[in-house]
Amino acid sequence: MSSAIGDRRIARLRADAYRVLAGNWREGRLADGTRYGFTCPAPPRYRHQWYWDSCFHAIVWRHFAPARAREELRTLLRGGRLDGFIPHTIFWHDGAGWRRAPFYATHSLYGDRATAHIQTPLLALAWEAVAAASPDEPGFGVEALDALRLHYDWLERHRDPDRDGLISIIHPDESGLDDSPKYDAVFGWMSHYRPGYFWLVERSRRLRYDSRAIIARYDEHVEDVLVNVFYALGLRALARLSGNRVYDERAQRTEQALVARCWDEERGLFWDLAGRDHTPLRVSTWSSLAPLALSSLPEPIARRLIVDHVLDPRRYRSPFGIPSVSMEEPSFRAGWHLFRCWRGPAWMNTAWLLVPALRRHGYAAEADRIVASCLTLVERHGFREYYNPLNGEGLAARRFGWSTLLVDLLPSVADRSHEVPEAPFHGNPREELLSMGVEAAAETSRRVGAAARKRLWSSQDGRTGGEPT
Ligand code: GLC
């Protein structure tokens, strides 16, 4: 792969990735002396610490500066509670004031240091990867075992009340896939991009975010395939780090439950299960493919996911990256939208999860093609939040942290990326707004053009009675 792409290009990409992570790095101390050091996803728009973003950042930091990777993960743990709960977002240096609190699942409308909901739990997986890159601190792998155990035990206790091995999310953004169309049928008017989301947050607030009480009282909760895949991967990592087989057994239960309850033999996809009746959410998103990352997945299932979906140009085989929603779904939208981002665009963490699985199952050429297309995206548009999988346009936030995950998919080359001078990037709200405006204008003109073309076709149809060509 390295020779096909060329060491020079890889070295340049690594240097650019380093510059993004270093520019977004924030560190300091709270008034009570608590230290923090983390990478914000993309200032100024995303300037806090997000759980899964931090795990992805640490996975990339370990290629450049393992000490930063360790600090990022230690900071995430420090933001958690003694009972093992770790928040979705932590507002270290910049509290959630009244203007922002309504958008965040905080306990009160003012002054919280963190949210009271979770995000896809991959901390143990990231911890293990960083530990393996820490020969300078051999104790790192075991220093947080108690805290990690508490975290995964908290998830089991609070999020798996029916004890079927699958944990539930109670807000759509807990998976990190905020507005994914797979949640439309469950959350409806309370979906992440609809005004009712405020009510979803408010009613959780009123129950003090007691997940068991919320799950018992309301039916809007989801046993989410992507979340459970990462949960199982985390449990496996914890078993390896601790040598405790109990976590392997728990991972196995979750993996078996995914196959037994979420796999749809007819459609050849995995579905999330909603509510107490476990209603399958039959919308094909990258979450339906995520179990490919589990090494225990039966070979015939893996093959079907790959052959029938990943390799199908009508579904997931797009020119750039891997789309977040199957191109065949009526809800698929490739382009930009102010409040919707998981309804089609290609994100780098999708390729990061699925490409190694493709290689493991013998599809190296396809894996190489996807990685090369991602490299093209970054070379043309920089590390953007996400990209249009059809035309490769870079979309939304710039200098977006976890898009640097591409580094983890490319071979390491001898380079001096880490010697690039650090330049803290604070972002400029005016520029950010301007770029959002340009994106909005481009998207609107694309839509207006498409509507005009459709009108033209239908008027020609009326005259000739033929199909548009
Ligand atoms: C968006 C993404 C979410 C991410 C957050 C911070 O809300 O949907 O997955 O964690 O931004 O980057």
Present the secondary structure layout.
Layout: H1 2-5, H2 7-24, E1 25-29, E2 35-39, E3 49-50, H3 51-64, H4 66-78, E4 89-90, H5 123-132, H6 140-143, H7 145-159, E5 168-169, H8 184-187, H9 197-206, H10 211-217, E6 222-223, H11 225-242, H12 245-262, E7 263-264, E8 269-270, E9 272-274, E10 279-281, H13 299-310, H14 348-360, H15 364-381, E11 386-387, E12 394-395, H16 406-409, H17 429-464
Antiparallel strand pairs: 1-2, 3-4, 5-6, 6-9, 7-8, 9-10, 11-12
The protein binds alpha-D-glucopyranose (GLC).
Alpha-D-glucopyranose binds next to helix 3.
Give your account of this protein's structure:
- The protein has 469 residues and is of the alpha+beta class.
- The chain contains 17 helices and twelve strands.
- The chain has helices spanning 2-5, 7-24, 51-64, 66-78, 123-132, 140-143, 145-159, 184-187, 197-206, 211-217, 225-242, 245-262, 299-310, 348-360, 364-381, 406-409, 429-464; strands at 25-29, 35-39, 49-50, 89-90, 168-169, 222-223, 263-264, 269-270, 272-274, 279-281, 386-387, 394-395.
- The strands form five sheets. It has a four-stranded antiparallel β-sheet with strand order 5-6-9-10, with helices on one face.
- Strand 1 and strand 2 form a beta hairpin.
- Helix 3 packs parallel to helix 5, helix 7 runs antiparallel to helix 11 (225-242) and helix 11 (225-242) packs antiparallel against helix 12 (245-262).
- The longest helix is centred in the last third of the chain and has 36 residues, at 429-464.
- The chain is globular, with a radius of gyration of 22 Å.
- Alpha-D-glucopyranose (GLC) binds next to helix 3.
- Residues 41, 46, 50, 52-53, 176, 178, 341 line the site of alpha-D-glucopyranose.
